[in-house]
Write a structure and sequence with these properties.
Keywords: Monooxygenase, Oxidoreductase. This is FAD-dependent monooxygenase. InterPro entries: FAD-bd, FAD/NAD-bd_sf, PheA/TfdB_FAD_monoxygenase. It is a single chain. By secondary structure, this protein is α+β, with helices and mostly antiparallel strands. It folds into 3 domains: 216 residues, FAD/NAD(P)-binding domain, CATH 3.50.50; 125 residues, D-Amino Acid Oxidase, Chain A, domain 2 (2-Layer Sandwich), CATH 3.30.9; 64 residues, no CATH class. It is 36% helix and 27% strand. The strands form 4 sheets. Strands 1, 2, 8, 9, 10, 11, 19 and 20 form an 8-stranded mixed β-sheet that branches. Strands 6-5-14-15-16-13-17 form a 7-stranded mixed β-sheet. A hairpin with a 2-residue loop joins strand 5 and strand 6. Helix 1 runs parallel beside helix 4. The longest helix has 29 residues. The C terminus is likely disordered. Bound molecules: flavin-adenine dinucleotide. The site of flavin-adenine dinucleotide (FAD) has 34 residues, from helix 1, strand 2, strand 9, strand 17 and helix 8.
């Protein structure tokens, strides 16, 4: 079988890429090993830049219909007491509306719904979109991709092969790139439970030694993420579900009824955070996107967004190559040029957010609380944080910012104008820089 682009893996990244290519008249084959919905919880928080991309893919209305908007992130520090409501020590609300964009919120959408919407959109371009469910990509044979379903094997010859298989990637193995993994001192338990209709804001509740992230989903559900020490899962499970009921109720009494809907540990997923970032995103005509290229600590809710943002840039590049009759492999460096440093930046931000919640000391909590509070009081810090996590732009923190955040310099009174922010939002030229270049060989200008 012959195609323009072969994609191994029909997760959010692979599907977003396939839809973009099919829409632009590029033939694409997607091999996905699963035939039905995955029972595994995965990313659900769609950041503003991702919403902008989904709008361009023509699926934003369907996505919004299945989503719960998150316009602010609330950080609540509490002191807990057994059988008594928690005592609020501080509450800080960071607002997406500080970002100068019409995409001024994030959206919580069940992961499988996002995938189903993208698949349906792909099928709309059935002349170009060829989806193979139940087919596992096994690697390369004679320069062709080999996919297998039970006893049937298909060899696919493509101009570009994309590894979108997530963390375990045969394409990455074939590229021989370096992967350096970083682990953390904590793990998470994650489970979706019912919520009261009035509980509709994203919230992170912390005490000196506990962390509970709560992200409302549609249909009166909430995705919960509870931090435990690395290696503690077995002993917690032995304590029984009563442990979870009590922990959740002490931190958020509004969910004390919802948490009791968990009737089996099987619904509670252990999530082990780690990060890595490959040293190269492409080799010859093989390319990596999403978790195949990088995995991010989940604290800042970026993993799925990075995958879709990779797909957007790579998709635009490959579609342009086809439209302009340019040799794909000579232009792949543009994809890496745009995405690698942005991903590196967000990996670092997520890592810092993880560190903030990694140590269980009262003094560490005080530092964290003050740093979060100053982020709200100092508009430049507030804008930078929200702009950076939104994916819409990049505005690096300076040493002055960090000194203000650490309390070594006073909070600045200046309010950041939209005009000032616009310099830091990614322009189309920055997202797709090859369009400026007409060099035949695709080399850097
Ligand atoms: C528990 C958990 C919670 C998370 N929470 C968040 C969050 O809140 N926010 C966020 O942004 N991110 C979150 N993430 C990360 C996010 O889910 C991933 O970053 C994102 O799904 C990556 O997308 P992807 O398309 O690159 O890979 P994946 O989503 O992993 O998709 C890869 C696809 O390839 C298929 N596949 C794998 N190998 C093969 C093969 N050999 N042949 C054919 N098919 C194959 C898989 O079945 C899968 O469908 C979370 C991840 C986990 C595990």
């Amino acid at each position: 079988m012959k195609t323009d682009v072969f994609i191994a893996g029909g997760g959010v990244g692979g599907l977003a890429l396939a839809v973009k290519l099919a829409e632009r008249g590029v033939h694409v084959v997607v091999a996905e090993q699963l035939t039905k919905e995955s029972p595994v919880y995965k990313g659900e928080l769609l950041q503003p830049k991702t919403l902008a991309i989904l709008e361009r893919l023509g699926v934003i209305e369907d996505i919004e219909d299945c989503g719960h908007p998150i316009d602010q992130l609330r950080f609540q520090e509490v002191t807990t007491h057994v059988d008594e409501p928690p005592e609020e020590v501080s509450l800080t609300e960071m607002n997406y509306s500080r970002v100068a964009s019409r995409f001024d919120h994030a959206l919580m959408v069940p992961h499988e719904k996002t995938k189903a919407i993208l698949r349906k959109k792909g099928e709309f371009y059935d002349q170009y979109f060829h989806y193979y469910p139940g087919y596992r990509f096994k690697g390369f044979e004679n320069g062709q991709a080999k996919i297998k379903k039970k006893r049937e094997t298909i060899n696919i010859e493509a101009k570009v092969y994309v590894g979108a298989e997530g963390r375990s990637s045969p394409t990455r193995d074939a590229m021989n790139v370096k992967v350096k993994r970083k682990d953390y001192n904590h793990h998470f338990l994650t489970v979706t439970i019912p919520r009261p209709a009035t509980f509709n804001k994203g919230k992170i509740i912390t005490s000196p030694d506990r962390f509970l992230g709560l992200f409302p989903l549609p249909e009166d559900e909430v995705r919960t993420v509870y931090l435990i020490k690395a290696g503690e899962y077995k002993s917690i499970k032995e304590k029984g579900l009563e442990f979870l009921y009590q922990a959740y109720s002490e931190l958020e009494p509004e969910l004390s009824e919802g948490v009791r809907s968990i009737d089996d540990w099987k619904t509670v997923q252990l999530m082990i955070p780690f990060t890595y970032h490959v040293d190269s995103y492409y080799s010859g005509n093989l390319v990596l996107i999403g978790d195949a290229a990088h995995t991010v600590h989940p604290m800042a809710g970026e993993g799925m967004n990075l995958a879709i943002q990779d797909a957007d840039v790579l998709g635009e590049l490959l579609a342009w190559c086809k439209e302009e009759s340019k040799p794909y492999h000579q232009y792949l460096h543009y994809y890496e040029d745009v995405r690698k440093s942005r991903v590196e930046f967000l990996l670092h931000l997520s890592h810092l957010s993880a560190l903030v919640y990694s140590y269980h000391f009262e003094w560490w909590r005080n530092l964290r609380m003050n740093a979060v509070q100053r982020m709200l009081e100092d508009d430049q810090l507030h804008v930078k944080q929200m702009l950076n996590i939104s994916g819409l732009g990049r505005w690096d923190f300076s040493w002055v910012d960090r000194a203000v955040q650490g309390g070594f310099l006073p909070v600045r009174k200046r309010v950041i104008s939209d005009h000032k922010q616009h310099k830091f939002l990614f322009s189309e030229k920055e997202d797709y820089p090859w369009k400026r270049s007409n060099r035949k060989d695709g080399s850097h200008e």
